[in-house]
Amino acid sequence: MRIGMFFREALRSIRANAAISVAATVTALIAVFILGAFIPSFMYVRSAVDAQKAKVDVDVYISDNASIAQVNALKGRLDVLKTDGTIAGFTYVSKDDALRLMRERLRDPSVLDELPSNPLPAKFNVQPAEAENANAVVAAIKDDPALDPTEGIVYPQTTADRLLTAAKFVQWAGFALIGILLIAAILLIGNTIRLSIFARRREVEVMRLVGATNWFIRWPFMIEGVICGLVGAVVAVAMLWGIKVGVVDAWASGADTALTKSGSAATTIGFPLLTLVLVGAGAFLGALGSGITLRRFLRI
Asked: What is the DSSP string of 242-279?
């Protein structure tokens, strides 16, 4: 069977060129290890930024002099924004609720007992569907007659802008670095496999002369690349698992920071899924590196 023959040829080449095969495997190991360390870190940072973006709320304060009809009209405009997907939802906070929340936040709520009346206005707390939509919410209701003339619309614009900038930077920088890592891995593995192909260039030439097709010649080398990539990936995953259990998990269980508290909204990729990704990446990089390198030797 041809598949079996291709595998036997690949294994024979690995045994005959053990030093080169080890070099290719170590190259794949290093590339996959770096990729395996970067992907969870990138996803965690991106998740943390997204979690902060989700906390960007818009407070729409209502004038004490606004009529019920005006408040209902403002609520209707917010309903329209919710229907078209600009906002995820909104909550009405009455004057009494606002004062109660203020009491809960103060260390000494008794200071509020000296107030002659409740100075806090009612408001709608609006949650944009995306942090980018905050400006659209403001533009849609900024001239509403029900707005409080003093407070109006309040949201952390500077913080939101910084979060959006950070999110875009993390996203594009992450994609760029992953792309660079993949290209570097393909080139490194390809250059290492090139040595094995060069050592057998006479054999390749003879096979071409007797009429072997390009794919017939290519398969053993690609399988060799896949084997080296898989072995390197498995060793890299084992090293990452050891670091995760022995270092990261031990540090996280003993640390008491905002990044490690159980209530943190930031998440990252699970290790089983990361293992599948890395093993697949190792095999893919090995096959692609071999395939690209072979093109030069198969040209007429």
From this structure: HHIIIIIHHHHHH--STTTSTT-------HHHHHHHHH
